[in-house]
Amino acid sequence: MTGMSDDPVILRPVVEDDLSVLERFLTDPEATGPFQWLGWSDPGRWRRRWAQDGLLSDDGGQLMVATGTDRLGFVAWRKVVTSRSSHCWNIGAQLLPDGRGRGVGTQAQRLLVRYLFAHTPVVRLEADTETENIAEQRALEKSGFAREGVLRSAVFRDGQWRDITCSGTLTLPQLSKIPRIGWPQAPSSSRTARLSRPASPRRTSTRTGRSLSGPKRETSSATRRSWRARSFSMNIKCTRRGLRCMRSTA
């Protein structure tokens, strides 16, 4: 391939003629790239899976990345079961050398994100890449993914255990439910009603200059004792009056 077509990047199902391109990723280290080459693998697995379901199943799939007649690689997704009744998709992409460094990976993964959210009932997509693969991490960020954490020594490649960066993206309805740390929360309906009520004008005493409205004024302990003594004496008078009435009727 001498040059890449100027046509837009598209995703399409794998046809039989594409299987030879996919087999290169299992047999050619240069085509696979430094971060995806994990050793020799069975090259016939693509053909067996394509004969079975066309590389499109309920548990995952592959689509070709192309521009015009140029085949640049593929994108893939697989099911990750998160609970007994829910799952998400883990996605990835592999491009041939002619398709790298041109923004093709970003465009292809954006198309895949849009496709999966439009045609599968999931609210989360995730992706894993080696921490040293900066280009793929940038492509994921441009596709709407956010870095969520690092798995230490998760993948063995080229004689060493490698750390993996985990990223994820959510559908728009789910994004609106995420609390924004540090942002003031919206008031409840009752609190909103109280806040929207117009404040009454503050009145002040002409003699002391103190406010007659607003928060409850505190009273001294002597005043509270006087109130209690007055209430106690009133109860005693009511009790004596009741006794006199009882004696007069007896």
Give a brief outline of the structure.
The chain has 250 residues and is an alpha+beta fold. The protein has helices spanning 19-27, 29-32, 45-53, 104-119, 134-142, 172-175, 189-196, 221-249, and strands at residues 9-12, 56-57, 60-67, 70-83, 86-95, 124-130, 146-157, 160-170. It contains eight helices and eight strands.
How would you describe this protein?
The chain has 250 residues and is an alpha+beta fold. It has helices at residues 19-27, 29-32, 45-53, 104-119, 134-142, 172-175, 189-196, 221-249; strands spanning 9-12, 56-57, 60-67, 70-83, 86-95, 124-130, 146-157, 160-170. Strands 1, 2, 3, 4, 5, 6, 7 and 8 form an 8-stranded mixed beta sheet that branches. Helix 4 (104-119) links the parallel strand 5 (86-95) and strand 6. The longest helix is centred in the C-terminal third of the chain and has 29 residues, at 221-249. Residues 180-197 and 245-250 have low confidence and may be disordered.
Q: Give the overall average pLDDT.
A: 79
Structural class: alpha+beta
Low-confidence runs of at least 5 consecutive residues: 180-197, 245-250
SS elements, strand count? 8
Task: Give, in order, the helices and strands.
Answer: EHHHEEEEHEHEEHHH
Q: Could you give the topology of this structure?
A:
Layout: E1 9-12, H1 19-27, H2 29-32, H3 45-53, E2 56-57, E3 60-67, E4 70-83, E5 86-95, H4 104-119, E6 124-130, H5 134-142, E7 146-157, E8 160-170, H6 172-175, H7 189-196, H8 221-249
Parallel strand pairs: 5-6
Antiparallel strand pairs: 1-3, 2-3, 3-4, 4-5, 6-8, 7-8
Helix pairs in contact: 4-5
